Amino acid sequence: MGGRAVSLRAYRLPGGIVQVKNSDTGDADVIKDEAAGRSGMPGRRRGLKGWLDGVRSTRAGALTLKIVVGLVGAVMVVGGLVMVPFPGPGWLVVFAGLAVLATEFHWAHKVLEFGKQTLHAWTEWYKRQGWLVRIVVLVVTVAAAGVIVYFGLLTLGIDVIEIAQRFV
Length: 168
Known about the structure:
With about 170 residues, the protein is mainly alpha-helical. It has seven helices and two strands.
């Protein structure tokens, strides 16, 4: 059979006897495994955080992760800001984009925390108001949404007021 012979070496480790094929790495794998077994360091995390730790463990991986997270987060934030004036999940997408950016950028974490605190403060203020203020806020919000939708449709060539006048 023209192949080279593979010899096996037996190593005694704390867990018992392990047989390892003789390879290009020599005894390095066995020595590393034995040292890892004696180490007091915690094991690698599992799931997404463990995967991210593995990616961040190399220079190229860390840079690639920063670039990808930066691009995905930026697209989400910009897309959310475009959607803010329209009825829908604009602010939700902005906050989700900031959450994505916050996984790699400290400044994004600070902006996200500021936004959450501001939203919480505004919500608490709104809860303390009487019915008159709540109704005024509702009317202004609905009117602003209506104006935004009207001009959005107008840019597409659809004049809602003209269509409504045909029916009157």
